[in-house]
Design brief:
Elements (H helix, E strand, L loop, with lengths): L2 H17 L3 H11 L5 H26 L4 H25 L2 H31 L14 H18 L5 H10 L5 H26 L4 H21 L5 H19 L4 H32 L4 H6 L1
């Protein structure tokens, strides 16, 4: 067991438990960039580790009843075969440095998409008025199936997207669903999705048992501790930090120089500050426009 990898797993697991996102998007780049693990081995080992971690969050939501089983069914129908197909594509696309370079570039692009999704997700969520009655929507079978196919393929290729990327697509397709229901649904459908991708990587990838074990030694207690603190987590602080880390990782994976990576991170930090300022101003305007009730309304 590598204690340094286990420590990295602990930190990543904590972030996953705290925010519900960032597993593959953080762990795989850490393995590639800091520990110099070959990209395919990093993807394979991380996704097998995720197969063991995913049921923890999914089981909690399933017990609480915050899962749309019909939605899970159509997502899984698309994601499970496409995740396995993604791994097979990796195997057939080439060997050696060419394949490793392809995985590295694909991972970098996936992290950029996830970073954009992390910005869009709170905007979509806050578009709903507090206390607004949410009318259930029927499951859109074909679009949901396509989301499963796209998400599964990306997960099979890069290990990224089973949480942060797919939840964004679901929010866009089902804006009137409760956010807790979408999160629970996404966590449950991710269990067979990640299991399918993990099986493919065990058979065709570069799965390394010792590396996976080192990740899990830290990640499992990290997820548990993070989940315990999640109800008090300052999401408005964690999300910008996570976005900056993902963009820094993606820029390096895509071959950017240290100077360009620094510029990307600085620009992302400035953009996140601007977004937070605009959102705070919008919240203040919304509060000011609320009709007065009770004694205040009578006095006025």
């Amino acid at each position: 067991m590598d204690p340094i990898v286990a420590l990295a797993g602990l930190l990543v697991g904590f972030v996953v438990g705290l925010t519900g996102m960032g597993g593959g998007a953080l762990m795989t780049p850490i393995l590639v960039l800091l520990f110099k693990i070959e990209p395919l081995a990093a993807v394979s080992s991380d996704i097998v580790a995720s197969m063991i971690m995913k049921p923890i969050g999914g089981g909690v939501h399933f017990k609480r009843g915050s899962v749309n089983k019909e939605l899970v069914k159509w997502l899984v129908m698309g994601s499970v075969p496409s995740a396995f197909l993604g791994v097979v594509l990796l195997k057939t696309l080439g060997q050696g440095p060419a394949l490793q370079g392809l995985v590295k570039s694909s991972l970098g692009v996936a992290l950029v998409v996830v970073s954009i999704g992390l910005v869009v997700r709170p905007l979509l969520s806050r578009a709903r008025r507090p206390g607004e009655s949410l009318v259930p929507m029927p499951v859109k079978k074909v679009p949901t199936l396509l989301i499963g196919i796209a998400g599964g393929l990306i997960v099979g290729l890069t290990s990224v997207g089973s949480g942060s990327l797919m939840i964004i697509m679901l929010l866009m397709l089902y804006p009137s669903f409760k956010l807790s229901e979408l999160v629970g649904t996404d966590l449950v459908q991710a269990v067979p999705l990640v299991a399918s991708a993990a099986l493919g990587h065990i058979l065709f990838g570069d799965f390394q048992l010792a590396l996976t074990a080192s990740i899990l030694v830290g990640a499992i207690p990290g997820v548990f501790i993070g989940a315990q603190l999640s109800s008090r987590a300052p999401d408005y602080v964690i999300r910008p930090a996570l976005i900056v880390v993902l963009l820094a990782s993606s820029s390096k994976l895509l071959g950017a120089s240290n100077q360009l990576a620094a510029i990307v991170v600085a620009a992302a930090a400035v953009a996140m500050v601007a977004v937070n300022v605009l959102m705070s101003a919008a919240r203040r305007r919304a509060e000011a426009q609320k009709p007065l009730v009770g004694a205040d309304a009578t006095a006025r």
